[in-house]
Structure prediction request, 347 residues.
Amino acid sequence: MDALHIALKIGKEFAFERTQKYKGNHLAHIIRSDWPNSVAQVLAKTKAPIIARASAGTGNWNAAPFMAFLDERLTTSPQRGYYPVFLYERGFESFCLVMAQGADRLKSTLGNKDALRELKRRAPKIRDAAPDWESKGFSVESFQTYSRGNVTFGRNADDPWAASVAFGKRYLIANPPTLSEFLNDLLLMLELYEEIYERIGDTFFAEELVMEGLAATGELPIAGVTGLDGALKIDEHKKRERRERNSKLVKDVKANLGYICQGCEASLDAIYGEAGKEFIEAHHLTPLSQAPKQGVQLTEKDFAVLCPTCHRIIHRLGCPSLDHLRQVVNPQLRNFHRTIKPNWKVA
Prediction:
């Protein structure tokens, strides 16, 4: 069976088969195996190392099936990145071929709201990287896809994630194209993808890794503060801090400013005894991401001393002033820290 007839068969039968047992289901097998194999000749015509990955679900049914075309130079998972993909729309009266973006990893890092904002920011950049998409028969419209491809909703239901689609083309199950038109559309979409890759490459991947790294250390700017731009500035700050670190200056800063956090006023030796003695971190009051690339001559006046927690929180806030950080800290905590003294030692 050719790629188009498989796509039509899926559209006509998926809503029913989804009510049946997933394991051993014949349609699920067709989606996973036969559908990707049916486009092998088209993929052979492309320059990029593209693989077709189709899914009806993992252990259980998806709300809707899909077939993604993934570039092995970037990823083999549809959870991140940008790629062409066949997606079914709500009601299964139509399906589409779109230049989409993976959302799962962004959602886990940023949350739904900020992830959607980031995907919306990227969509026009993807279009700009392949300016001839419209002349090749693709358009920008509200494609009702992704995890919201539920059989109980009509296609006109609002789908915010549709805004992350750069461009695409819709096919009606009741009035499909010819096989040659269908396969030619796929080839054109893959050619557009190659244009996009040549201009954008792994930029979005690199940005996501920055955000994931900051999230892992608790330093990703919080929602509503500075978004991706803020995350990139914090990352640049941390890189330059490591690269241009002056150990003697940092040591002098700590010796002169002391070992009490200027944010929460914690004395770590009062909390942890000998293990916390003279334990404090030096924080650049002016982020290094804002400093000239050729560097500047720093003095002790350019630093504050912060406990590890306050240091990461000030990064999460986008590196505001020390006064701003102090306003965020619960004053009751500062008052408590003033009452405890470093008067005991670890045995």
